[in-house]
């Protein structure tokens, strides 16, 4: 199961922003939406998530793929990816922050494994949920602006 | 995709899972609470913003009795379906202009109870919306289903009915 998560994660990286748009189709369990339904703005907002940032790097995607095969210590990962221990620690730290990797220190060795793959799904779901509310609230701004203008125009009878 | 000044000025909508069974959304509005509350509780106004065009949903009809104990029924349409979908429940608390609580019953007993608070600060209003599910499992299931805020659940159910 972890490898499934890692594979999905690493595959989807390049087209992640596009996926965010497509995901809304999934959200309503429907066939392709009419063109122009999903805005660039939504994709840009999606790209702000920590998971997105963590995945915007080839080494980190490689680390996820590697951890999908088996757990590994930070030093082993550093060796595999030909980098310093400090450099690998930084990468692992970012993946950990995004919930994609979990680390555990046993004695002097810090072992890394994939975070529950659900975390990634959950983050994507919450982002869709946020986009729905953001879209509603942006439209609500317009309604409120209209109301304000109307109340101003019709005087201050109420006050 | 240069972000214009308007984009930068647009308040941010945040959403996060708070604990086992709750989702919390926040947003600030540049208007007094009474006005935001009015836009939320006047069917004719609600219909203008509740079904975002970018989600391809149309708001067909809105029957709502905005009183504590009153009920609501929203009919929504989507280009993929001939039949409208119903979203319904009861208002558990309507306290203008600061608090609104309703049930979401279209998905059965595992639906969330939504609480919205309108908090006015210096002429602006902070809206905090909480979707509280009955159990952790109910929220996990909502996430696992891929549905977002009811729309998906409804359409997924319709798909299941049509497929069956």
What features would you describe in this structure?
The complex is a heterodimer of chains A (159) and B (164). Chain A is mainly alpha-helical. Chain A has one domain: Orthogonal Bundle (Arc Repressor Mutant, subunit A), CATH 1.10.10. Chain A is built from 8 helices and 3 strands. In chain A, strands 1-3-2 form a 3-stranded antiparallel β-sheet. In chain A, helix 1 packs antiparallel against helix 5 and helix 2 crosses helix 3. The radius of gyration of chain A is 22 Å and the shape is rod-shaped. Chain A starts with a helix and ends in a 6-residue tail after the last helix. The N terminus of chain A is likely disordered. Chain B is α+β, with helices and mostly antiparallel strands and 164 residues long. Chain B has a domain of 100 residues: 2-Layer Sandwich (Alpha-D-Glucose-1,6-Bisphosphate, Chain A, domain 4), CATH 3.30.530.20. In chain B, 27% of the residues lie in helices and 37% in strands. Chain B has an 8-stranded antiparallel β-sheet. Chain B is globular. The chains are: A mainly alpha (159), B alpha+beta (164). Chains A and B meet through helix 2, helix 3 and helix 8 of A and strand 1, strand 2, helix 2, helix 3 and helix 5 of B.
């Amino acid at each position: 199961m972890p490898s499934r998560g890692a594979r999905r994660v690493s595959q989807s990286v390049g087209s992640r922003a596009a996926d965010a748009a497509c995901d809304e189709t999934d959200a309503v369990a429907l066939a392709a939406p009419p063109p122009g339904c999903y805005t660039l703005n939504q994709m840009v907002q999606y790209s702000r998530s920590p998971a997105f940032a963590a995945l915007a790097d080839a080494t980190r995607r490689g680390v996820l793929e590697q951890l999908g095969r088996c757990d590994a210590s930070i030093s082993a990962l550093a060796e595999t990816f030909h980098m310093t221990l400090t450099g690998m620690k930084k990468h692992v730290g970012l993946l950990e922050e995004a919930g994609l990797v979990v680390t555990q220190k046993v004695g002097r060795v810090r072992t890394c494994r994939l975070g529950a793959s659900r975390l990634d799904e959950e983050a994507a779901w919450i982002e869709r949920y946020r986009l729905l509310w953001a879209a509603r609230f942006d439209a609500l701004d317009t309604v409120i602006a209209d109301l304000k203008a109307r109340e101003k125009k019709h005087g201050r009878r109420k006050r | 995709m240069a972000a214009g000044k308007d984009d930068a000025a647009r308040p941010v909508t945040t959403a996060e899972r708070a604990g086992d069974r709750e989702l919390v959304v926040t947003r600030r509005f540049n208007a007094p609470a009474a006005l935001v509350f009015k836009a939320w509780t006047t069917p004719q106004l609600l219909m203008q913003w509740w079904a975002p065009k970018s989600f391809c949903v149309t708001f067909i009809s809105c029957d709502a009795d905005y009183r504590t104990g009153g009920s609501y029924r929203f009919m929504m349409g989507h280009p993929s379906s001939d039949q409208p979908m119903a979203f319904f429940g009861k208002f558990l608390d309507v306290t203008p202009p600061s608090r609104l609580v309703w049930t979401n019953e279209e998905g059965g007993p595992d639906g969330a109870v939504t609480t919205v608070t309108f908090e006015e600060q210096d002429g602006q209003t902070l809206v905090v919306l909480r979707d509280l599910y009955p159990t952790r499992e109910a929220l996990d299931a909502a996430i696992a289903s891929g549905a977002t805020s009811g729309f998906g659940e409804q359409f997924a159910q319709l798909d299941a009915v049509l497929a069956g």
